[in-house]
Amino acid sequence: MFDSAKLLFRDKFAGREVLNFLKISHPSNKCPFLTKHQMFLLFFFLLNSTIYTQSDWVRWEKSDPTYQIKNSSLDNEFDFKIDSPSDIIIKPVINAYWFFVSDVDGANCPFHPSCSRFFLQSVNHTNFAQGILMFFDRFTRDTNFINRQQHYPYYDASHFYDPITSYTLNSSEIKYIPLKTSIKE
Amino acid sequence: MIFVNKIFLIFLLTISSKIVAQNSLQDQFDFATNLFQQEKYFDAITEFKRLLFFDKQNQFEFKANYYIGLSYKNGGKFDEALRYFTLAEIKSTNKDEYFLAKSFQVRTNILRRTINQANKILNQLEDEETSNTKLNEIKYWRGWACIFADEWNKAGQIFSEDKLDTTLAKLCKSVNDEMYSVNFAKYSSFIIPGFGQFYTGEYVSGLISFGWNILFGYLTVNSFVDERIFDGIVIGNFLWLRFYIGNLQNAENFATQKNLLISNNALNYLQNNFNGLKP
Amino acid sequence: MIKKITLFIFLFTSLILSQQIDFNSPQNIKLFADFLFCNKDYLRAIDEYERYLKMCEDDSIQFKIAYGFLQMGNYQNAIEKFSAIKSNSNFYDAAGIEKLKVFFLANDTSSFISEADLLLQSNNPYNNNVLRFKNSVILFTKNLPAKDILLSPFTFEEKSIISDFYDWKKNPPYKSEQIAGILSTIIPGSGKIYTKNYSDGITAFILTGLFGYLAYSNFEHKHSFRAWVFTGLAAGFYAGNIYGSIASAQIFNARLNFEFDEGVKLFLENNNYFTPVYDFCK
Q1: Residue B134: how many CB atoms within 10 A of its CB?
Q2: Cβ within 8 Å, pair C13-B14
Q3: Which domain holds residue A155?
Q4: Using 50, 70 and 90 to split pLDDT, how confident is the model at C136?
């Protein structure tokens, strides 16, 4: 329905009218008109000018280039911060999992954040019971490998973006991101 | 006699007005260049654009476009810089100006890491140029293009040829010697899980990988020996294979990561401590 | 004869060259600023226009400054500059509707509505445009007026589209969270299928079924520990599937809302937000 709206309105000019009064000078304007010579110059340069300078819409200063290559690897960083009672149980287990299993069993998770980080974030964001439910749901979706690109936007070349905010059952937290777009940079 | 004097007077007037007009443009150019030298690049661009706008005779067309390009380049706006260096190339009036504009296109492309584009321009310049100093400069930027493409070995060869730049040659060679072989890391782990990790100095990860592979390998083989085929397939598929592939990925990743660190270290040195000509 | 020709040439070249360029004269500043403006180099153009305004008064320049800020997405300055345009200016009416556009683009709906109401009370020649703009924006809000009131200012072709939007908003084809949850409670995964996540639904069914079966078969064979582990996992997948179905319905609805909002935005964009088109660079 909305695609057809797009087509319908591409060539339409409803509500558009070209303002001609720009050429009429207001009585309070106190500058003399242009000379013919200046008009010619203006015309000439308008013809020649097709340069589009969006990068100059904000003042910028000198900036030294960085020679270094950007490091874009995704690493699990161990998380020892204890913010809630449940962290005392969960964090050591997850840290141990990251250290002994996750770091050495290859890149298996198609999502960002990874399943273990998703679990940690959901417990922190909601509560332990809801976090477990969210984790089981995530694991189910993780097992399903069909048509992921039709359900999730991209995070980077090899990961889909699947944040916890879509699954807290608080619909005001859901930020819908169109499919086939990448949210990273 | 009076008539002749009149002509002479008009002549004098026109000549002097021409000089004055030129002077005001020259003043504007000096003003803009002064801003450029004070590193006020945004304002310098405005003034150069103003100069271009009023320079009806196109006397400053090359210089102004060239300086606008330089200003954008120094502000890290490489796309814009390239656009103006190309304009400068079009407006160049002699071979030197042409070469200057082209060489800055190369340098901007190197910084922007569009190395293919840089090499394309270098190839074109190499075909056109005959003078030795310019050919040497072309070669020099070729070397830098290789550095930014992370091809230190090739860069080293270019810089050592005809002693083009001995400092850079030495640096490239040492970086190249320091690099880990990604293929060796990967294929050694292929044979002995964890070996590639040991080779890149990641001993703990190597040990854990080795441990898991031994454990699950043993369990898989054991299941098959005991004729528990289903268990064997499940453990082999979901556990052993998983950790075996993880071991290969890690070996490769560690080598690439270590190499990246080495590259970045050298690039950092080049950016901050190297005093020669930089892109 | 030759003398005359040389004289002519000298005079002619001098005509072109003899002007000593005063880069800081108001005309030249304005000329250069116009050039920058038409190249969309708005920030530089605005700086030049501001210099010009210090020397001359010109409401068209004030308008162009505000318009430049709007084009650059600098909404705060745009509002400030549009508001500064005096009521006796030719640009006062246009500035009014441009202000609406700024409020809309800055997502400030409450300011938009109050400003639109103010404009509608005045004698603005663009009042029909303002009304159409306002009625389109009302589609984003929750309190819709009666359909014929909302549709009345639009042209015939616009009416059919706005009417579609209106009907959608009145009866959005949402998927119910409750139905999704109940369906999944009865048959695992069916709630996800209801929200059109077919493969996720099937996966949820298989996983719950598989672990349920494993638990059952282990109880049968008296492997009590393993049986309880599988029971726990099966219960987890079952509960997670109900939870996930509700979440899935919410995401489905969020997607519908998003597409509706984008559709209305596209409609407005294609109509240039019912603002006039200015020809600054003819």
Answers
A1: 18
A2: yes
A3: 87-101+108-173
A4: very high
Same domain, B125 and B205: no
The interface residues of chain A toward chain B in range 152-181, judged by CB-CB distance below 8 A, are none
Answer with the one of B146, B179, B212 that is the final residue of a domain. B179
Structure tokens that stand for B128 in this block: 């056109």
> Three-class SS of residue C1?
coil
Q: What is the 3-state secondary structure (H, E, C) of B201-269?
A: CCHHHHHHHHHHHHHHHHHHHHHHHCCCHHHHHHHHHHHHHHHHHHHHHHHHHHHHHHHHHHHHHHHHH
**pLDDT tens-digit series, residues C22-37:** 898 999 999 999 999 9
Give the closest-approach CA distance of C16 to chain B in angstroms: 9
Tell me whether B238 touches chain C (CB under 8 Å): no
Structure tokens at C36: 């920058």
If pLDDT is split at 50, 70 and 90, which confidence band does B6 have?
Answer: low
Nearest CB among C27, C41, C94 relative to A53 is that of C41
Rounded CA gap, C203 and A145, in Å?
9
Which of B11, B46, B54 is nearest residue C44 as measured by Cβ atoms?
A: B46
Structural fold of domain C28-121: 1.25.40
Chain A residue with the nearest C-alpha to that of B193: A104
Domains contained in chain B, number: 2
pLDDT-derived band at C229, boundaries 50, 70, 90: very high
CB-CB under 8 Å, C11 with B14: yes
Residue of B nearest to C13 (CA): B14
Instruction: Give the minimum alpha-carbon distance from A68 to chain C in angstroms, rounded to a whole number.
Output: 32
- Please give the single-letter amino acid code of residue B277: L
Q: Enter the tokens of residue C42.
A: 């708005």
Contacting residues for C111 by C-beta, under 8 A, at least 6 apart: C103
ipTM comes to 0.82
What is chain A's mean pLDDT, rounded?
Answer: 73
User: Does B134 lie in the same domain as B75?
Assistant: yes
Q: How far is B131 from chain A (nearest CA, A)?
A: 30
Cβ distance of B267 and A62 shorter than 8 Å: no
Residues B175 and B43 in one domain: yes
Mean pLDDT estimate for chain C: 91
Tokens 């638990």 locate to: C215
Q: Which residue range(s) make up the domain with B61?
A: 19-179
CA separation for the pair A109, A131 (Å, rounded): 18
Chain C touched by B9 (CB under 8 Å): no
Instruction: Band the pLDDT of A97: cuts 50, 70, 90.
Output: confident
C148-155 contacts at long range (C-beta below 8 A, 24 or more positions apart): C153/C128, C155/A14
Q: How far apart are CA B233 and CA B227, in angstroms?
A: 11
Closest Cα in chain A, distance from residue B243 (Å): 4
Q: Is B13 or B36 the better-scoring residue by pLDDT?
A: B36
Residue of B nearest to A66 (CA): B271
B7 touches C at CB < 8 Å = yes
DSSP B154-220: HHHHHHHGGGS-HHHHHHHHHHHHH---HHHHHHHHHHSTTHHHHHTT-HHHHHHHHHHHHHHHHHH
Are B172 and B54 in the same domain?
Answer: yes
Q: Per the CB < 8 Å rule, is C240 touching A54?
A: no
Same domain, B173 and B58: yes
Looking at the complex, report in whole angstroms how far the Cα of residue B269 sits from the nearest Cα belonging to chain A: 9
Examine the domain organization and report whether B123 and B142 are in the same domain.
Answer: yes
Q: Which of A22, A33, A36, A147 best probes binding to C when mutated, by most C CB atoms within 10 angstroms?
A: A22
Residue C1, burial from CB neighbour count under 10 angstroms (0-12, 13-18, 19+): exposed
Residue range A168-177: mean pLDDT, rounded: 92
Beta strands per DSSP E along C18-137 = none
